[in-house]
Description:
This protein is an alpha/beta fold.
Amino acid sequence: MKIGIVGLPNVGKSTMFNAITNAGAECANYPFCTIEPNVGVVPVPDERLDVLTNMYHPEKTTHAIIEFVDIAGLVKGASKGEGLGNKFLSHIREVDSIAHVVRCFEDPNVVHVDGSIEPIRDIETINLELILADMETINKKIENVKKKLKADRKCQVELDVLEKISQTLQTGKSARTIELTDEEKEFIKDTYLLTMKPILYIANVSEAQLENPEKDSNIQKVIEYAKQENAQVIPLCVKIEEELASLDGDDKQEMLEALGLQESGLNKVIKASYDLLGLMSFLTAGEPEVRAWTIKKGTKAPVAAGKIHSDIERGFIRAEIVSFDDLVREGSMTAAKEKGLVRSEGKEYIMQDGDIVLFRFNV
């Protein structure tokens, strides 16, 4: 699963990407420094794995992972090929969701492509280009469906959905703001609309702004804008995150405490991105390995078992499950079983985040 990091040039995208992945993507104070997207695979922070590692002392601990893609900065006219528009749009089509970095800080030493700090203008610059690209896609689809309609009146339902989306896009709103049924979503599945992708807004702020984000007008503007898309906003200071990323262990913890933070902003971004994709983790624990396995929310037990090995899914008998909290409280799987806290679940069981599982199978 890929998260595309987007934003105008010089808003802190590549610096944030570097801090997330320690991949060393080039950063420079001029537009289009990032041309080909940088890709980084990062572990999803999960404190539960740390607890289980202390309990089992495994040979290795494996986190779930998520992939971030640092996409070139976009400017007005991208939908018509301006700047690196065509590359930007092709790269964003390939990701599953969007992390939109918005500059909220003032700094005369860092050039803003439009000459001033106005976060809503910047958000709308990018969203408008995506909307224009989607309008072109939808209009082509509408023309094709209208031709089919002459021979098959059943296409009217599909046409109604497409026209509803077209009307929304024409008002300057993203397709993700429309409530669609599962059936309606099927009609547009092959259009790969850019503004249908789930989105997370990241407000890049100064250290001073981070101290009282609820009182900062720029941050609040972004939060109000995001509400119309039911999107989350995470304020973070990319400069601080870059410094935190260079520290380990006690040094990192000391800096977090000095800043009055429970965890880094980047950890929040990674966790929120994982959730944005509709993902969650089930856990396996033992002396060989403690591991988080990534599945979609709503996944049934046999399909989850298939994440470990196809043979386990094929020969699935049952899943023996204990909740993380119950296992930790009792101190061992044996003690949890004695208390009747280990459940036996069948093929229809829907996995829950943090389930600790042992799959029984026969092939």
